[in-house]
Design goal:
Blueprint (H helix, E strand, L loop, with lengths): L6 H4 L1 H15 L5 H15 L2 H13 L4 H6 L11 H14 L1 H4 L3 H10 L2 H24 L6
GO molecular function: peroxiredoxin activity
InterPro entries: AhpD-like, AhpD_core, CMD-like
Protein name: Carboxymuconolactone decarboxylase family protein
Length: about 150
């Protein structure tokens, strides 16, 4: 598959604005591991190979275990994830698939048991950010530079 267009070159201001959001999220209280779980999981749902490859490599670099990454596509059945991670992943699934039913009250309340309102806001922004990158990568057929 050949890359269709390069949004970074064609619309650098828009690209940099999204990248700025990414940089902002790097400095929030949400841990790197939790942010990578969000990025990988949303990318799995969206079928974004570019982002799955990138964020899996990043997760491994920061010490995430391979078996947890392998189990992420069925996180709800796996004993490898803590209750706070399960809440985070449930929010990720529902916000990524927002047209199904939105973020349910039950999932939101479970998230509130583990995260502050500010952290929930950060989680939702992180999910939105990776979904934006997924849509750019998939629509343009982004390719990793070897």
């Amino acid at each position: 598959m050949e890359q269709r267009i390069n949004i970074q070159e064609l619309e650098p201001n828009a690209y940099n604005a999204i990248f700025g959001l990414s940089k902002y999220l790097d400095n929030t209280s949400l841990s790197k591991k939790l942010r990578q779980l969000i990025k990988i999981r949303a990318s799995q749902i969206n079928g974004c190979a570019y982002c799955i490859e990138m964020h899996t490599a990043e997760a491994l670099k920061i010490g995430e275990a391979q078996n947890r990454i392998f189990a992420l596509s069925a996180w709800w059945e796996s004993p490898l994830f803590s209750e706070d991670e399960r809440a985070l992943l449930a929010v990720t699934d529902e916000v990524t698939q927002i047209s199904n039913k939105g973020l349910s009250d039950n999932t939101f309340q479970k998230a509130r048991e583990h995260f502050s309102d500010n952290e929930i806001a950060q989680i939702i922004i992180q999910i939105s950010e990776i979904n934006t990158w997924n849509r750019i990568a998939i629509s343009t057929h982004m390719q990793h530079k070897s």
